[in-house]
Structures are given as C-alpha cells and as structure tokens.
Design goal:
The chain is built from seven helices and two strands; from the N terminus they run H-H-H-H-E-E-H-H-H. By secondary structure, the protein is mainly alpha-helical.
Length: 198
C-alpha cells in the first residue's frame, strides 16, 4: 500500500500537470477541513437548517474523497479522453471502461449533492423574504443578502454543471464508439442537447 501511495504521488513527464492540479486541490480541501474541524458542532449539528447542513457536509466529504481517491488509488491519467497508465501505455479496454464508469458515478453523485445542497439552502433559510436595494446583489454586495431568485439561479447552474459533466462523459463514450465502428455524429447530437439548456 505504501508503494502504491508513493507511486501515485510521484509525478512523471506525462502526469506533471494532473499531478500539480490534484495536489493544489488536495491542499485547498485540507485547509478547508482544518479550518472547519474545530467548529464542526456549530456548523453541522444545530437543528435550524439541518438538512442543508448535512447535505453540505456530505458534499464537502464527497468532494474531498474524490480528490484523495484520484491522487492515491487512481494513478492513471486521461489523455484525449482515454486512460493512459503512468508509463504512457494505453490502459486495457475493460480497466479503462470500468474506471470511466466509476468517474461517471462519482461526478453524478457530486452534481446531485451540490444541487441538493443548494436546494436545501433555498428551502431552509428565508430567502423568499429578502428584499435588497435596487441593483444590489446578495452575492456581490457586503450589505445585501442572497435573494430567492438568486438562489434559484444558483440551483439552475448546479443542475447545468451536472448535465455538462454527463455531456463530457458522453463525449468520451462517443469517441470510443466512433473509434470502434467509425460511425460519427453522436457527439454532435449531445452538444446540441446541452446547448439547448442555455
């Protein structure tokens, strides 16, 4: 296990950028977790807004799990939509497909939990009763509070993030399928469907 961790944390020429990105993400999440740990009880256990607190906690833990999973357990990288092992050789088809399904599951749960975290905040806190001065945004002004319409907009973008994650997974699926049977067109259809949301 120690050898696996050391191997995963040692960058090679083909993995230096993914290594730096995942290291920065892990550092950022570690700082957040260190900051909130002493205040865990006040942040996550009070009864008011409990569903939002618990979904937010799950979302943070799931995001952290993903960052550390990719760093320690998965030491393959993605190049042009295909898994490549650290020595630069293509990963086996079944291994690559299995890993792709795990990433799809992870991204789906992350998107759903982000959406639920936003929805529970909209429901649990009195955003419907917030009235700001004309032109003030709850997310941009120090004096203003986030309004119900701003929360609904945030919810829309959370859902859009989820759909776009699915879209990226489908692009990889269609790239693989097109390479297998030389039939194109699937990616274009998916692109049009995602753009319809805008």
């Amino acid at each position: 296990m120690i050898t696996k961790i050391v191997t995963a944390l040692t960058p090679t020429k083909t993995t230096i950028l993914p290594f730096l990105a995942s290291t920065c993400l892990r550092l950022f999440l570690t700082l957040i977790l260190l900051r909130i740990t002493p205040h865990f009880h006040d942040l996550f256990l009070p009864p008011h807004g409990r569903s939002h607190r618990l979904t937010g906690l799950f979302h943070l833990l799931w995001l952290s799990f993903g960052a550390y999973y990719v760093a320690v357990i998965s030491h393959d990288v993605v190049e042009d939509g295909f898994l490549v092992s650290q020595d630069g050789e293509p990963a086996s088809s079944s291994s690559s497909r299995h890993r792709q399904m795990l990433f799809l599951l992870y991204d789906s749960i992350l998107g759903i939990s982000g959406t639920l975290t936003t929805w529970t905040a909209t429901r649990d806190f009195p955003h419907k009763y917030v009235r700001n001065e004309r032109g003030e945004s709850g997310t941009l002004s120090k004096r203003a509070i986030v309004t119900y319409s701003e929360m609904k907009e945030h919810l829309f973008y959370q859902l859009l993030n989820l759909v776009q994650a699915w879209y990226l997974h489908m692009i990889v699926f269609f790239l693989r399928r097109d390479d297998d049977d030389d039939e194109g067109g699937g990616g274009g259809v998916m692109t049009k469907k995602v753009l319809l949301l805008w």
